[in-house]
Every structure is written in C-alpha cells, then in structure tokens.
Amino acid sequence: MGRAFEFRKERKFKRWTKMAVQFTRIGKDIVMAVKEGGPHPETNSKLRTAIQNGKAVNMPKDRVEAAIKRASDKDMAGYEEFVYEGYAPHGVAILVETTTDNTNRTVANVRSYFTKTNGSLGKTGSLDFIFKRVSTFRFDPGELDIEELELELIDAGLEDIFVEENEEGEAIAVIHAGYEDFGNMQKALEEKGIELKQAKLERIPLSYKEVTEEQVLDVTKLLDKLEEDEDVQAVYHNMEE
Known about the structure:
Blueprint (H helix, E strand, L loop, with lengths): L2 H15 L1 H19 L7 H12 L4 H12 L7 E8 L5 E8 L2 H14 L3 E2 L9 E9 L6 H8 L4 E8 L5 E8 L3 H10 L4 E10 L7 H15 L4 E6 L4
Antiparallel strand pairs: 1-2, 1-3, 2-8, 4-6, 4-7, 5-6
Helix pairs in contact: 1-8, 2-3, 2-4
C-alpha cells in the first residue's frame, strides 16, 4: 500500500497512544467549564461534556477531580482560546485551535512549526470558506434503529447521522448538528438515555486538496508537530487521505 499508508498508520497509532496530551487537553476543557459555569456537572452542561470526554479516553477519576478542584480556586488564572490558520506544503489548509495561559509561547511555537515544515500562517478568517463548524456527537449505536433516531432528532438540529468504525474496528454512531444546536442536541440525546462517548464542536472541510503519497509525508510532519503541542486542542486539515 506504499510508504505513505504506513506513515499514516504509524501516525494514527502514535496519536491514540499519547494519553498524557489528551488528558492535558481535557483538563483544560474542565477548567474552562468550571470557570464559566461552576464545579457541579449536574448543573453545568459544559463540565458534564468534558468529564464525559475524559471517560472516553480513560482519564483517571482523580485527575478529573483534581482539575475541577484547581479550577474552583479563584486565584487560578483561566485559559484563553485562539485559532490559527495557514497552509501546509502543497496547498493543504490547516486550522489550529489552541487553549493557552501564555499567548506569546503559543503563537511562537505554532509559527515555528509552520516555518520549519515549509508551511505558512495566514490571517484569521482566511479559511472560513474551507471549514464549517459543527456539533459532533459519538456513541455506541447498539441495537438502536438509526433511521428512526434520525427522524426523532431533526427538531434538535440534526444535519447528518451515520455509523463508522473507530480505531479498534468497533461501530460508532456519529451525529452532526448545527454549531448553534450543540446544547439542544446534547439535551435530546440525554433525554433518550443515550450515553455519549464524545461530544464536541469540530470543524469539517467543505472542500478537499488532493495530494500524492510523497506530499502526504510532508503535510503529516506539520500535523504531528502541532498535535504534540500541549497548547493545541485540535488540528483540522482538508487533505484528501
């Protein structure tokens, strides 16, 4: 299947084994949720979602509790969210979401990753025509009738529902809803007793850039550097894989 396939396979394996980075990112989500809506998940939907996402990657309970406790300290500074946009080699669009307590460090690191891999940073909003923000929910479909569920969730903002395989080859149901319908969809799924494995706001590409196998290697060098940075919460691209 070629070197590029093996490179992507290795990259995916590395990504899913970097648990420490995942825990750090979810820990930041917990802190921001607590700062915004308080330390009680039963009355704070954002915190409830962050805890849920932590469970999905087997984040230890004591780490979740520690993050909530830290965030409850009024003297603890919060995090700021910044989005960086640019292009990897070969014209592949890259959008980087960050959460940081040191903006100078974060922007310097992100800029260096693009520069060292022959990419370039662009202006904020320059990729609005390429990426669309959506609410994404993932759960075990079990014995659910997906077609029936689709009809029941239209009023909650459903745009798409489908089943895919995760890294372990298990079936996972995926729901896409409007960006502004995150809360409505989350509430609708909770009312139906559906236990979510993940709930988050994502960006999906509206168009894709075709690349050769050799070009894939150049682009993934940048993606790897970005994904390894603890200030980076998510990285999106429009490379046709």
